[in-house]
Amino acid sequence: MGYKVSFDEANQIFAGLSSEYEIWAPKRFPGKGRYSDTDIIRYDKVKTVEEIVFDEKSDFPAKEVLSPITEPLFYFTEDEYRESKVTSKKIIIFMRPCDIAAQQRQERIYLGNGGFNDMYYERMHEKVKIVMMQCDLDDDTCFCVSMGTNKTDNYSMAVVCQDGALKVEVKDEVFAPYFEGKTADDYTPSFPTENKTKVTMPEIPNKEVLTKLKSHPMWEEYNKRCISCGSCTVACSTCTCFTTTDIAYNENGSVGERRRTTASCQIEGFTDMAGGHSFRNTAGDRMRYKVLHKFHDYKERFKDYHMCVGCGRCISRCPEFISITATVDKMNKAIAEIVAEENK
After folding, report:
1. 288-305: per-residue pLDDT in tens?
2. Over the stretch 154-183, which tens digit does the pLDDT of each residue have?
3. Contacts of 252 (CB under 8 A, 6+ apart)
4. Same structural domain for residues 217 and 180?
5. Is residue 45 domain-shared with residue 113, that is, in the same domain?
6. Where is the domain boundary, 149, 184, 219?
7. Residues 6 or more apart from 319 whose CB is under 8 A from it?
8. b or e along 153-163 (b: 16 or more beta carbons within 10 Å of the residue's beta carbon)?
């Protein structure tokens, strides 16, 4: 069922939902951007529709709602430990199609991966209802169509902001009572059919080609360009790497908390092991690992789709202007070179 509601009516609906739900959406933070006098858009709790940014892509992904950059896992004393608590409310998240696809990739990692469910992710995931934001952006960093993540039917409601009002499709009947008496509309969401940026997915025919690709000189370029800051992976909507740290509250360390914090495979030292062992010691090695994981390894393991969803946030956030799409193009050329050499 479709409806058209004014901002005032939408805010009344938000108020009604707030007793049972937290509402999360992309929100602008003035003056909090990377450079002075610039803004940043990231996910936060909202109370009114005016707080939601509909016409720009968020700088950081929706995954931060379910797997925050830092979160306490449990608290401990000398005698016991206590699991950290989460909100008692259910959660509504406004998400674009690419972020909805990214959540499916997150679920693959956190839920049922090898028969193990991450309890901290699971307890948040089971609370979530999705509001799909119709994406009419014309951003030259997006390539969701190439990744097949431009469309989705995985949502409870869909919404588009037009002419100072919201058009809403209500799929989940649990939300129907909130729209009683509101103006009916025949709204059906539309989806992007073409991006300015297009990417051809790499096809690695066998392990021999993969092995040669890993040692191809194309990766050496990133020893000079990449500064290993990790900005790309923090902004990535599908990355799941993290580290854990114990925070001591007293001098002898008998009282404190264990905290999980987002980590990055692109940062030097990420692979350090006990005994002084370390792997992927150059920026080029780390870039190779990330790109192959997003565009080969994940799909090779799970046999359905690539890990990358084409949101383009890594391109926007990289201080060295490294483009993942240009990197994939170079990888395609390298694969073609290796195959041609093998066929001689």
Report:
1. 999 999 999 999 999 999
2. 999 999 999 899 999 999 999 999 999 999
3. none
4. no
5. yes
6. 184
7. 227, 229, 231
8. eebbbbbbbee
